[in-house]
Amino acid sequence: MAEKGKKFTIKPFRTYVQMDHAGAREIWSSLSDAIDEIHGRNASSLSFEELYRNAYNLVLHKHGALLYEGVADKLSGHLLQTVERLATAEDGGLLEEVAHAWSEHRITMVMVRDILMYMDRTYVQQNRRRPVYELGLHLFRLTVWEHDRVQPRVTDLLLRAVASERAGLLTDDRTLLKSNLAMLLELGAADGSNVYERDFEALFLGTTQEFYRLESLDYLSRNAASDYVSKARGRIEEERSRASALGLPPTTEAPLQSIVETELIERHASALVGMEGTGFAALLRDETKVEELGDMYDLFARVPGSVDHLRDALGERVRGDGRSLVADQERGAADPPAFVRGVLKMRERYGDVVTKAFRGEKRAARRLKESFEDFLNADARAASCLAVYVDELLRSGLKGAGEAEVNEALGRVIVVFRYLSDKDVFEAFYKQHLARRLLGGRSVSDEAERAMVSQLKAECGYQFTSKLEGMFNDMRISRDTRDAYKQHKKTLAQAQSASASASASASSSGGQSSKDGKDKDPTTSSSSANPNAKPVDIEVDVLTAGYWPSQNVPPCALPPPVNDAIGRFEDFYLRKHTGRKLSWQTSTGTAEIRACFGGSSGSNYRRHDLSVSTYQMCILLLFNSADKLTLGTIRTETGIPDQELRRHLISLCTPRHRVLRKGSKGKAISGDEDTFSFNQDYTSKLKRVRIPLVSMKETGGVA
């Protein structure tokens, strides 16, 4: 039998009782009183849990509208009391009063929001109303801020406070300014209004622009450019610091900086560059003002478009200095090496300006390069002068220099070389000078010569220097050929010595010695009239025609002993190199002749070894058989071109080396009938005398 169980009683559901309007009003009344207490800062006596439950019940029983509208009315009432107080406040304390009212209102709204949190999550979202906290801020804007005795006065006080700071006067605590501005920003964010932009930012930016427009004009009219730069830099930093201290948003700070930079920099960029005596263009003339130039660049760099004024000034300065160098060179006030040294000095100076003042800016470096190219490529002058400058370096300028010094000097040459647009023109000039150095043995060192070619090769590639390297190769092969020819002559001499005795050479009164057009080292010979004379000894450089500068000068008439020596060398060379053809260049080369002065004997007898060109040798040997010759006769006998003949004759008639006497008076050679005679009275302290050639422009006469 089943155990007797307990009795279960089923009770009906409780009947849901809807809160009536009277009950809702009663609950709202308690909430309203609580809001008053919160506003009065008596919230410590309130039970926020009970208040939250009451608000919850109102919303739950469909009285959300009553609650929402009641809160709005209650907040509006308190805000009306606040604005009445603010409207009558004195200007001196208005900012503080507004900041305090705003702070109190925010605290109130945070507490009210916590009580009405359920309403925010349900009623507000369902009915698309403003959340309670944002509602409070919206009402503050409408009721307090937009009151005609609050907004205009606060805005004016804010702008005046900033103006006082700019004038250097003490102002109110910046925290008040920051609090009021933060209020405007939060009010605008709360309801999507542009209250901050409309009521402060637009006026603030406008007054800022006007202030700096007037101040910059006044300050620039009374001060030097460098002082203005310092002032502007200080003002820009001051505005940046103020924007940070006042908590201005990026949307204000960016246009603020733009306005300040436009008024202080962009509008006066041209004037700052061109100011007489103190502007950027004037400072470029002074090598000691690099720091001031850098300060101006740093200022202009804030407005990138303004830097073009500085670059233009730099370019114009470089072109102006360059044109002055060109003018000096044209007037003859500066020789080619001096011209290049001036260019290098300019490059060093203005390169330093770009590196230090322009902070190494690539666009400034490009403008510098373009400016140098502008005046250096006006004609072929720069290429010619640079080749002469390199020739001077490699002849004597680098004598005794170490490897590092050589590379540094040649590196500066390459800097100028890069500016030349037609580098083939330089190569042609350079090759002519290189040929003279190699054939005359006048280079400071082979290492320096090869270092220069290596730098050109690195700059322009193998094709550019292939002919130059071919010239060095020819010189190396020529040394081997000379050594082989010496050995060949030694072998012949040994064979001849077995059957004949050697004879001593004798000198004639005029002296004679020769080399053919490609000889290198000095050699000695006696007169061809002496049958017992030693054969003329020659040293020949055999050159590849395609590598060396072309010489379209017909050979002159060489003395018979020299022709005999040429024949002996050709027999030796062509036996070893069949199929080749030797073309003798008599317009180049040197010779050493032994000349006797003062008669054939006696106390006045003097003998000198003269180092002369091939043309000078041909001229002097004519005086072995004649005491006086005319220009026309010498030209006929030697076949030397007229211009070169005059130049070489004048070189033999200079006051310092008057080996020949000119018959006519004055500096110029009068004509074909002008006579020249051997000067028996010539004397020199040196045993071995080198007769230099005068320049082509001096061929009009001698002193």
TrEMBL record:
Low complexity: bias regions: 493-514
Domain Cullin family profile: 381-653
UniProtKB keywords: Isopeptide bond, Ubl conjugation
Transmembrane intervals: none
One GO term (biological process): ubiquitin-dependent protein catabolic process
Record Pfam families: Cullin, Cullin_AB
Annotated stretches, region: Disordered: 484-535
Sequence similarity: Belongs to the cullin family.
Protein name (record): Cullin family profile domain-containing protein
Species for this entry: Pseudictyota dubia
